[in-house]
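Intended use. Records like the one below are meant for learning the mapping from a protein sequence to its folded structure. Do not use them to infer anything beyond what is encoded.
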Amino acid sequence: MKGTFVGRKWLNDGEVETITAFLFHRGGHDDPARLRANDGKSFQGSVVVGMGFTFDDTDNQGAASSIAEMRRLIEEHPRNSEVIFPYIGGDEVNTSPTLAYDRFVINFGEMSEAEAGRWPKLLAIVESRVRPEREAALAESWSQDKEKRAKRWWQFSRFAKDLYKAIAGLERVLVVSSVSQHAGFAFLPKRIVFSHALIVFPLPTYGAFCVLQSRPHEIWARFFGSSLEDRLRYTPSDCFETFPFPEGFETNLTLEQVGLEYYKFRAALMVENNEGLTATYNRFHDPEETNPDVLRLRELHAAMDRAVLDAYGWTDIQPGCEFILDYEEEEDEESGPLRRKKPWRYRWPDEIRDEVLARLLELNRKRAEQEQINGLAAEKTVVKGKPRKSRKGKAAEAGQMVAEFLKEKS
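Structure written out for the chain above:
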């Protein structure tokens, strides 16, 4: 074949049959495909656009109302609590030792203005604090989104109805901050408004947590995801939808048990040290950290990795971790090396990382091919002429979903 190199190939000081576009010895040259098996299992939280919706004592800009005002409104009219929800974002998940929220938000879902008027004092707060901001933004520069926000000023910019529909039958969900240093996954109760800074997964099992928090998933997310400065930007389309999970991961008892042990130990450690996920994993990756509890967390993480590799059937991979710099420190010609903490990471060496990535890529390709075959077979059996749901029917379905969500909360 024209353009194909036919000589001996060497990669990482070893002779190989193939060198892929990713500089791996297997796995193919193409970007990973999005897998249908992962559809409907990852969502961005609600895009609020307007701090005037919130009750927040930490807001220094004066856009939010106080928690005391929220309590007064609920005491005055208890039914106001029906549309006031806890509100949590990436900062709280990364920094709170107990994953606690300290903000609340007025949430009218997809109600009409008339329906929202059943809570007149809350609607008045939104009208006075959100509406002027949205109309000013529209006056400054036009866009279709800004026009929609200004016309529907009592609603979030994006309610994320598919998310709340997906988690309706669950008691808890997994979340991860969309931007973080360490991508710490954690469980939260479902009756919360999740901000756009969180990615939410309707996966309530410790087996799912075990896989997502393990190094196979982390290296996949870091390789195919993007970054913001030196932090990982976790995007569902790149990091989750393409990831080939082990078969039966949600019902794998070993993954469940190992994930539970790790999660409980980490949660207790965070409370004991009064440190959130970011601070805990900073210590986890610090080569000078010798605290016995941190050493134990590293052991439990290795056990979790081992369970995940075994779930794939990759018992031949025997990884060990080392403290490795993510990147070399920069130097300034005048002041010399920058004075900041070195970017150490306690991780697998490159050859192990690349081997696992190559196998995951290969598995992604096989899964995608099988899904295509299955999809084509399914298309041939579809009955023609099936009636489509009318727009009115879809709107009624969405309205019913919001009503059920609000009813569950109250």
